[in-house]
């Protein structure tokens, strides 16, 4: 497929997991991809993978919590590639599973700063380019936690992902007249190193506990990052031209039970 030919796509959290898989898929669809990540070496590895496969990509280092830095990176992307047509906000952390009565202010705030504030800062930085271009597609990264609390704990994560869902719907209505579609992909359990990345970025206080029960997936397995990336690519493309304000669950049936 070549659905993103001559389009510029920005992927935050593009150094690993769903973000890296989405960056590779958007490039395979013909897009020039700006791979943005907190870890410069990880971003560069994804960009190199894309270039080795014949695509176009450039790595950029940024912390999505830093509004000024995100703005600088987006300006650099526009200088390097031109106006942006697609944004996927893949940067995120899960937070530690800590009982709410033991949770510190940092345990709470650090997750919201990345998942919710970081999503908004990236969107805000990209919007002027999308408006100049005359439209485009924003895809945020939600979760099954945007809808349900399948297990106890993870209050900051679930609150942040619920916020991402409502932010997505609000932006979709706000910018529909300008031709900007805004949707959210909501993964269930996916094989990524999210927990390890979280521990390195936002060390937890309190007593971290294990889930009370293993997650049951009707399809009988966890998802692959590439399966989420395929939905991101669809939402980015003109195949989804009449879809906006939606949160698409990609969870193997978890929320159907």
Distinctive features:
single chain; 257 residues; alpha/beta; 7-stranded parallel β-sheet; 7 helices; globular
Structural notes for this entry:
- The protein is an alpha/beta fold and 257 residues long.
- 43% of the residues lie in helices and 15% in strands.
- The chain is built from seven helices and seven strands; from the N terminus they run βαβαβαβαβαβααβ.
- The protein has helices spanning 17-28, 40-52, 67-81, 105-133, 155-175, 194-201, 225-236; strands at residues 8-12, 32-37, 56-61, 86-89, 136-141, 180-187, 247-250.
- Strands 3-2-1-4-5-6-7 form a seven-stranded parallel β-sheet, with helices on both faces.
- Helix 5 links the parallel strand 5 (136-141) and strand 6 (180-187).
- The longest helix is centred in the middle third of the chain and has 29 residues, at 105-133.
- 50% of the residues are buried.
- Numbering strands along the chain, what is their spatial order in the largest sheet? 3-2-1-4-5-6-7
Number of continuous helical runs: 7
Oligomer: single chain
Order of helices and strands: EHEHEHEHEHEHHE
Percentage of β-strand residues: 15-25%
How would you describe the shape?
globular
Tally of strands: 7
Instruction: Describe the largest sheet.
Output: 7 strands, parallel
Gyration radius over CA:
17 Å
- Poorly predicted runs are 198-202, 204-209
Helix % is: 40-55%
Q: What is the average of the pLDDT values?
A: 92
Structural category: alpha/beta
Give the end-to-end Cα distance, rounded to a whole number of Å. 34 Å
Protein name: SDR family oxidoreductase
Pfam families: adh_short_C2 (PF13561)
Organism: Gordonia liuliyuniae
Family: Belongs to the short-chain dehydrogenases/reductases (SDR) family.
